[in-house]
Amino acid sequence: MSIPPLITFQEDFLSGKLISKEYVHFSEIDCPELDVWIGRVVRSISLEFLHEILFTILSELLVNGCKANGKRVFFKEQGLNLWDDKDYARGIPMYKDEFGHNRKRVFLALDHSNYKITLSTICKEDYIEFRVRNNAKILPEEKNRILKRVEASKKYKNINDAYRESVDNEESSGLGIVLIHILLRNSGISNQFFQLMTTDDFTEVIIRIPKQLIPKENQTNIKNLLLREVNSLPPLPPQIQKLILIAKKKDVDWHEIAAQVEKDPAITAEILKIANSPLFGAHTPIISVLEGVKRIGLKNLESIFLTLGAKKILNSRYAKQVLVWTHSFKTSMYARFLIEDRKKHLKLLEPAIISALLHDLGRMVLLSLDLSQVNQIRVLRSDDNNEISEWVEEYTLGTTHSEIGHLMAEKWNFPEEILDVIRYHHKPWQCKTRNNILCQIIYLADILANIGRGKGNYFTVEPEVLEYFEISSEKEFRDMQDSFKLKFEEHREEYQNLLA
């Protein structure tokens, strides 16, 4: 089944229409199409952090369904009655041996059977629902084993605990069910969102993912605290405001701006560092402010001054700002590499560099606030975890760093293109302004820059974005990422100086 166009998929899914895929061949389960399909579902409703977890869970359910179907075909081939206790006892060791030594033949036999598995999802008001349906009636033995695994999973904190106790995985159906429950539970999703349905015509597992993990009242309280925090941010420093006003003047000249910059030693140092950095393709070092502002360019100075003002305020206020700036500088350079590599939209090179520097402003607030309500999120962690996923934290808070960053940027009167990038850098398809392409650039650069941190891959990128940048295969994507990483590492010392 081919992947539907993005807009149609989103409209159908968000309107509550059932979206389905059928699997007959076992090999289809490993198809990248499944990864892309899950990515579209979770991105539609801002549950990106569940992408890999859901891929693991749904793959496990689909594979188990194929194994169950393979068993039925095998028993028929051997002239055995699956529902007869004696035949079942005789046939299971034979099937295990055949599956272990000739798995490919087992699954090829499914091609000539009437068995199939259907994966479907639907968006409800309070949750999204995934159903994996097998058009085969479940055996009492199979059902009892699944229910036993569901019950057993409650005592395990992680999959290693399950392995250590050597859960009986006869027919490879034991640890998979335990894994599913551990993954769901450690994502904050309780066992009540797992359901097994059986009839004479089919067997179906239902996974329901709630859109909220804490009560709406608590989310509202946290949102209000965040809004108060944003509203309490001071205005940009007076000297920065003055520089911005000068930069906006139609008749401004280089000497006037340079003279004003030189009145503040700290701003002078920052301008020279930026002008000499790889952000602006610096090759020949410069030591004068006049040459520095010329290299940056008049049209970029307002945004650079805004960046310096925001950095000054946030660095003095939030403890984890270095982590965010480090990633932001990396994304900025990856945006430059992307534009130069694809030779598309060279006119957007400098706006992309600057907007990438500011795309994660809101994350500083979310990562640094000491909110009492956030303690409720700690129940989502297993005891041996040291940190909580920022995606889980945002999911639980009921807001995102993009929303908070947009509020901050509005407060400081950032230009429209930066506002759009901050708001839509994870969902460029939602940007309906002339800045859509700029948002796509930062979206892809952000993912490429994050891969080294274990976030994202070729299959998590929206297909239309890959197509737009003419990236047609996973290999091409990986080669691009490797190339950008090498270029970035060449200048790592210079980036670290920018953060000083």
Automatic annotation (TrEMBL):
<dbReference type="InterPro" id="IPR052340">
    <property type="entry name" value="RNase_Y/CdgJ"/>
</dbReference>
<protein>
    <submittedName>
        <fullName>HDOD domain-containing protein</fullName>
    </submittedName>
</protein>
<dbReference type="InterPro" id="IPR003607">
    <property type="entry name" value="HD/PDEase_dom"/>
</dbReference>
<feature type="domain" description="HDOD">
    <location>
        <begin position="233"/>
        <end position="428"/>
    </location>
</feature>
<dbReference type="Pfam" id="PF08668">
    <property type="entry name" value="HDOD"/>
</dbReference>
<dbReference type="InterPro" id="IPR013976">
    <property type="entry name" value="HDOD"/>
</dbReference>
